[in-house]
Amino acid sequence: MSLYKTFETERLILKPTTTEDAAFVLELLNTPKWLKYIGDRKVHTLSEAKLYIETKMLPQLKRLGFANYTVIRKTNQEKIGSCGLYDREGVEGVDIGFAFLPQYEKQGYAFEAAGKVKNMAFNNFGLTEIYAITTKENSSSQKLLEKLGLKFKKVTNIPGDDEDLLLYKLKNK
Q1: What pLDDT was estimated at residue 1?
Q2: Into which CATH architecture does domain 7-171 fall?
Q3: pLDDT tens, 121-168?
Q4: What's the start-to-end Cα distance of the chain, in Å?
Q5: Which end of the chain is more exposed for a tag (fewer CB within 10 A), N or C?
Q6: What are the two backbone dihedrals, phi and then psi, of residue 142, each rounded to the nearest 5 degrees?
Q7: What is the C-alpha separation between 130 and 46, in angstroms, rounded?
């Protein structure tokens, strides 16, 4: 996957997610907050995690040159979270998303990674605006989006899901 660029911040490495990250993806997709705020992706085995990466992440990476990034802590090379830009069906524009293992929350990693991904969207991938969606109950995600400069736009839904979601937007200056 060296065809796609890896990015760095002061404390983090953001590398495009590949099937080599399947064990990490399996763990992340089954954390309590992922299940509560993002939803059950029905990924319960290593082979299902590999298939999820192959069918949900890699096609967008190949099509657009960006997708999901595995966030790795530089100090110990530990995979701690996920952050990326997603071209989701039924969602206006390209949206930014993030999720971290519980033990790495509230340490500034999500802000650091999402800030880098926001800059990548505008400076590396030529996007003129980015969006984000979150549940009404996920106040920590809302606060992070606002800290990144995104502004609440409206309540929306994803096709096939009647849950109301909050849509945020940021235009590149």
Answers
A1: 42
A2: 3-Layer(aba) Sandwich (3.40)
A3: 999 999 999 999 999 999 999 999 999 999 999 999 888 788 899 999
A4: 32
A5: C
A6: -60, -45
A7: 32
pTM above 0.85, yes or no: yes
Place of tokens 């995104």: 150
CB of 132 within 8 A of CB of 95? Answer: yes
Q: For the chain, what percent of residues have pLDDT higher than 90?
A: 88
Q: Name the amino acid, one letter, at 44.
A: H
Q: How many CB atoms lie within 10 A of CB 48?
A: 16
User: Which string of DSSP letters, residue by residue, matches the chain?
Assistant: -TTS--EE-SSEEEEE--GGGHHHHHHHHTSHHIIIII------SHHHHHHHIIIIIHHHHHHHS--EEEEEETTTTEEEEEEEEE--TTSSS-EEEEEE-GGGTTSSHHHHHHHHHHHHHHHTS--SEEEEEEETT-HHHHHHHHHTT-EEEEEE--TT----EEEEEEE--
User: What is the per-residue pLDDT for 2?
Assistant: 53
Pick from 108, 114, 157: nearest CA to 136: 157
Strand partners, 14: 7, 71
Q: What are the residue ranges spanned by the domains of the chain?
A: 7-171
